[in-house]
Structure formats: structure tokens, C-alpha cells
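User: Thanks for the earlier help. One more: Ornithine carbamoyltransferase. Can you show the sequence and predicted structure together?

Assistant: Of course, both are below.
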Amino acid sequence: MYGLKGKSFLTLHDYSSQQINYLLELAKELKMKKRMGIKGNLLEGKNVALIFEKPSTRTRCAFTVACVDEGAHPEYLGKNDIQLGYKESVADTARVLGRMFDAIEFRGFSQDTVEKLALYSGVPVYNGLTDLYHPTQILADLLTVKEHLGSLKGKKFAYIGDGRNNMANSLMIGCCKMGLHMVIVAPRTLWPDQGLIETCKAYAKEGGGSLIVTDEVNAVEGAHVLYTDVWCSMGEEEKAKERISLLKPYQVNEELIQLTNNPDMIFMHCLPAVKGNEVTEEVFEANYSVVFDQAENRMHTIKAVMVATLS
């Protein structure tokens, strides 16, 4: 369907708005089946390699449960379990795994690694997170927005904090392709790459949305979605003190919530959260916080990706 069979999921750059919407609708259907206790067999007989250079809660559990729910076998391969990039090249590892597995998930540092796995393995490869992109998270986020707000197109989506990390990058792509009005609120030193901004503005123009990048926190006014992420991504821990000082004015607190001036606003965070840094405990635990709906939806959307590309 929509040309997805055998297709890798490396970045939302590679997916049209129609393909993204199909995955969201499929995820909704699969979620309903699971809630009804209907066990699936759409991945029966499939074997999926799960490569993890970085630790994970949601990504690992989502892929594992999604596989088992539909009859597939997931095989976890930690950074000390295989020779990837150390004693064996990525290309050689890909060619070995591609002959044994029906698909490969990779969560690690380099986007180049996941691209090479897809190039050489001959099977669908899924990006569970790299330093550049986190596309499976964005699918879960978009599904969550649809569930709570009814639709995507025309909604104002404000992301505040570190504007050049993998989450900001991927949210820009996904929101602009799906016709949302995206606002990145970040200090100028943490703005996204200008080339990516221009690319996403083109996506927004085609999809009927818009993209603004600013350092003014009052740009969150009217937001239907207020989203943040940790101030220091994995591997950047040595920058913590500097980032806290720089980003303190961009904390999501009750004062910032009031700036949205939208009673229907929802708060989102991809987790894990450092409460007291990017978000206060009060906001995190509020009724408008949907962070655990997002976390659950990782499983349903990841399942949809695997079903669409493998079954």
C-alpha cells in the first residue's frame, strides 16, 4: 500500500504526507485491535534485528512488543553483542544480517550508519534514533495530536528549547509535511540548520502549513501543542551547565502555559524528562499533559511501520 512494502524508515524526508497519513491510520486500526484483545499475525514468520548503540526504554520496548503482538521474533543486539563498526564494517554487518533477518532496527549515533545498513542489507531498516533524526517518535507524536485535537492540518505546534537536536529536526519535517503551523522557539545559537529550515518551509508551502523560527517565547501564543525535549541530548552531558544557563528562559512552566492563551492546548514531551530543567513537575503532571499517551503510541506507530513495510 502506498509503495511501502520493502521500504526503509530512515527519515520522514523519504515519506510523502499521504504515506505518513496511511501509517497513522494503520496505527489507529492496530491500536484498536490491541485494545480489543485481538492478537495479530501480520508479521508471522518474520525476524527483526534490534541494534542498540544507545540505551532505550520506549524504543526497545515498543519494537519488541510490536513484533510479538503480530507474530514476529525480535532479536536484541546491544553494542557489545556484535562487531558493528569495530571489528567489522557496517556494510559487512548489514550484508550478514540482511541474509538472516527480514528487517533491522538501529538506534545509535550516526545517521550514516543507519543509511549504510539500509544500502547494504537488502531489507527494510528502521531508524530508532540517531543524532540527526528520530522519525518513529514523530509518528507517535502526530498520532497523539490527532487523538486529542481531532486533526493535524492547521494546528499550531510550538516546540521550545534546543532547536537543533534530532527531535526539533524531525518535528519540523513531520509537522510541515502534514500541514501544521510549526514554530521553533530557541536561542539563536541553537537554531536548526538553515538548509533544513528552507527545505521544511517548502514542505509547509506544499502541505498548507507554515514554519517560523524565533527566539521570542511569546511566539507560543495560540499554540494547540506545546512541546519540549531535554536540554542535553545523549552524548552531550558535558554541556549540561552551559545549556541550563542558556535555556532557562525557555523552560515550560505555568507562566509559559499561560502565554499560549489556548484552553485546548496539550503539552508533549518525548521522554525521558528532566523535571526542573526543560519542564516543571507542575506542567508535566497537569491534565493537559499527554506525555504517556505519546509513549504508548510509540508501540502502535512502530507496529504500523513494520506491518506496512513487511507484511
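User: Great, one quick takeaway?

Assistant: The chain is about 45% helix and 15% strand.
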